[in-house]
Structures are given as C-alpha cells and as structure tokens.
Design goal:
The structure holds two protein chains of two kinds. By secondary structure, chain A is an all-alpha fold. Chain A has nine helices and no strands. Chain B is of the alpha+beta class. Chain B has a single domain, classed as Arc Repressor Mutant, subunit A, CATH 1.10.10.10. Helix content of chain B is 49%, strand content 21%. In chain B, strands 1-3-2 form a three-stranded antiparallel sheet. In chain B, helix 1 crosses helix 2. Chain B is globular, with a radius of gyration of 13 Å. Classes of the chains: A mainly alpha, B alpha+beta. Chain B: Pfam families: PadR.
C-alpha cells in the first residue's frame, strides 16, 4: 500500500513543528494514525487509494492550518521544562554554594568587608526571589493552565527571563570568585597533574557549570519555538466530510 | 463555574463524546461529525491539540493502547472531566 501523500504530509508537519522531541514524535505518530484510519475508511467506502489519501488529508487540514495549535502545545511543554530545570538549578546551587566554597579555604585568613557582605546578602535574596518567580512560572504552565487563558503567550517571556537570570548568575559568580580571597587561588592550586584530587575539583567545576548551559539551551529553544508566527491564530476552516454528508 | 471557564464549544463537544467511554482520535472525530450533523467547523488535525489541552487541564487522560493489532492513543474522561461536562 502506497502511503506517499500521507508520508510527505507528516514529513512537512514534522519540519514545521519544533519542541521537546518525545512530545513531537508522539504528536506526529498520533496524526499519522489518524490519517491512516481516515484513508482506511475512505478505501472501505470504495475510493481508490490515491483519492482516499487526498480526501483524508483534506479532512485533516493543511499544515499551515493545524500546525499553530500543535506548536502551542510544544511551546508550553518547552516552557514547562525550562522553568522546571531552572528551579532545580537555582535551588540546588543556592544551597550548595556555601558548602563548596568553604572547602576551598576562602576567608580562612581574614574577615569579609562590609561591601562584600552586602553584595553576598543582596545576591542571596535575589536568588530566593528568582526561585519564587520560577516556581510561579512553573505553576502557570502546570496546574495554573486552568486559570490562565492562552498560557503559551508566556512561553517566550519565560525563555528570555531565564536567559537574563542565568546571565546575572554568571556575572555574580564571576564577581564573587574575584572578590573572595583564596577562592580562585584555592581552586587553581588544588588542580595539579600530580594530585589525584584535582580531578574531583575539575569534575566539581563541570558539575557546577554544565547545568547552567543545559538550562540556557532549553531557554534558547523556548524563545526560538514560541514566535508569534509559529503560534499564530490560524482560523480553522469549515469543512464537510464526504463520509458524513 | 470555576475551572471550566476556558472550555470552548469544541472542548465541550469532545467531553460529551468521551462521556460514553474511552475512544481514540479517529473515533472521537467520527462521533463529533455525527453530533454536529450538517457541518463541523473543525478539521481532524484540530482535534488532537484540543485533546492535549484537555489533558493538560486535567479533564481527560490518555494512554497508548493496543487495539486490533495497532497501538492507538486512547482518551478517557477523568473525574474532573465528568463533572465539567455535567455543569
């Protein structure tokens, strides 16, 4: 049985949609199933294969017509994922920061200045606010969808906000690294080729930095797939199925 | 009607169809066509995002079920979906 028309339709649909891979392939699989059912029904009603396929496709709607509604679900899923990992990252690193820095010998020989203390306190509170905001975003994209109409409108903003906070976070980390005596030098001195423990330090740094990149990439995807053009409100045309006259 | 504010006409029709039992996409579409009679202003491709949205809202749940040797994504009402439809 030739499925060429259906195949190229699904391919075209796949090209015009983007978002979390599993959800996308799930949606495409379901669309293909639906088209296969429709072709079967038209064939059983006596139509030739080619004709049955184009009638099934006509019932399904053009890619331009139906893709925006699909893309909204994908954008929401991406925004939810970004917000979720952002919360995990911020909360985990907020609590781990003190612990990991102490081990490098920072502030072992002098007391912090007032300005330094003010900055760290300010940053601590900022981080808490970010976590609260991210939890709110998570609610909006989770249970909150019941109370928020068109929640996908916030997908793009979620991506931008996440990127902005990650940028601030990188700046604050760099500032703290430079302003804390013995922190940077403690890290550098613990890294040496002869010392096996330096592997752990490098591993620790990687574990610290990589999740930031992961969340950033998720946020960039969130922004890229949630453009107004992709989520646009295509009017669904009226149609009559030949099977139900 | 708290919680049901964002259900539009199509959403309610889908919930009404599912009230009689779990169905997969194509059969839901057939039932919608029969209910609408003359003309249905919804292409088949418009149904699936509606089903996902209803699932996101907690009115339906879905699972891939093996039927007649094929896997089909089958939808059924949750308790909330049942109540939302009654109202």
């Amino acid at each position: 049985m030739s499925q060429s028309l259906i195949d190229s339709y699904i391919t075209e649909m796949g090209r015009s949609l983007s978002g979390p891979r599993r959800l996308k392939s799930d949606l495409l699989l379901e669309a293909r199933d639906s088209l296969t059912d429709a072709v079967d029904a038209y064939r059983d009603a006596g139509y030739a294969e080619e004709e049955a396929q184009s009638m099934a496709l006509a019932d399904f709607g053009t890619v331009a017509e139906v893709a925006p509604a699909y893309q909204r679900e994908l954008a929401l899923a991406q925004a939810r994922r970004t917000a979720r990992w952002f919360v995990v990252l911020m909360a985990a690193q907020m609590f781990l920061a003190d612990e990991s820095w102490r081990s490098t010998g920072a502030w072992s020989d002098q007391d912090p200045t007032a300005g330094y203390l003010f900055f760290t306190r300010f940053w601590d509170y900022s981080q808490m606010i970010f976590v609260v905001v991210a939890v709110l975003a998570l609610f909006t994209f989770g249970l909150g969808v019941r109370y928020v109409s068109a929640p996908w409108r916030f997908a793009r903003a979620t991506g931008w906000l996440t990127l902005a906070v990650l940028g601030l976070k990188a700046l604050a980390s760099a500032a703290l690294l430079l302003a804390t005596p013995n922190l940077a030098s403690g890290m550098v001195s613990s890294i040496s080729l002869t010392h096996p423990a330096s592997l752990f330090t490098l591993l620790g740094l990687a574990i610290w930095v990589l999740p930031n990149w992961y969340v950033a990439i998720s946020a960039v995807r969130c922004v890229a797939i949630s453009t107004a053009r992709r989520l646009g409100t295509a009017e669904l045309g009226r149609r009559r199925s030949a099977l139900y006259p | 009607m708290p919680g049901t504010y964002f259900l539009d006409h199509h959403d309610r029709e889908v919930l009404a169809v599912l009230e009689r039992g779990p169905l997969y996409g194509y059969l839901i579409m057939e039932a919608l066509r029969l209910r609408a009679g003359e003309e249905l202003d919804l292409p088949t491709g418009g149904l699936y995002p509606i089903l996902r949205r209803l699932e996101r809202l907690g009115y339906v749940r879905s699972a891939w079920v093996a039927l007649d040797g094929r896997h089909r994504r089958t939808y059924e009402l949750t308790e909330m979906g049942r109540q939302a439809h009654v109202r």
